[in-house]
Design goal:
Number of domains: 1
Largest sheet: 4 strands, antiparallel
Strand content: 25-35%
Oligomer: single chain
Radius of gyration: 34 Å
């Protein structure tokens, strides 16, 4: 009794070269997409960091303004930690400010700041300044 077994050598085991190349192409496309998402995320994170640094520096500069009874109309400029800033203080022509019963004059405080990377921020606020004695 001779028992002859037939070995299957008709390609049912393993992958063909074309199947392996298709799998590699799919993996490359997926990795490329993931790389693009990571690059966009890094860029967005840097932009947020710049804006946070700008707003923090702007808060510091605005907190350093003189008290309202010492605030004067005009322009100031300077730099803080590589951030260039400019503050313009101007009176607001409001009808209520011209009223004789008003004890205060509103001043517009407009600050522009530019960071080292080129990002910019503008902050505008109003300060009420006591009227000068007439």
């Amino acid at each position: 009794m001779s028992c002859s077994r037939k070995r299957s050598s008709d390609g049912e085991r393993g992958f063909t070269l074309i199947e392996a190349l298709v799998a590699l192409a799919i993996i490359a496309a997926v990795l490329g997409s993931i790389g693009g998402v990571i690059a966009t995320t890094v860029q967005g994170t840097r932009a947020i960091d710049q804006k946070l640094a700008l707003s923090g520096a702007a808060e510091t500069v605005l907190a350093g303004l003189p008290a309202r009874n010492a605030l004067k109309v005009g322009r100031q400029s300077g730099a803080l930690a590589g951030h260039r800033w400019r503050i313009d203080v101007a009176p607001i022509n409001a009808a209520a400010a011209d009223a004789p019963s008003s004890r205060f004059v509103p001043l517009a405080v407009n600050m522009r700041m530019q960071g080292p990377g080129g990002a910019q921020i503008q902050v505008t606020t109003v300060r009420l300044v006591p009227k000068a004695a007439e």
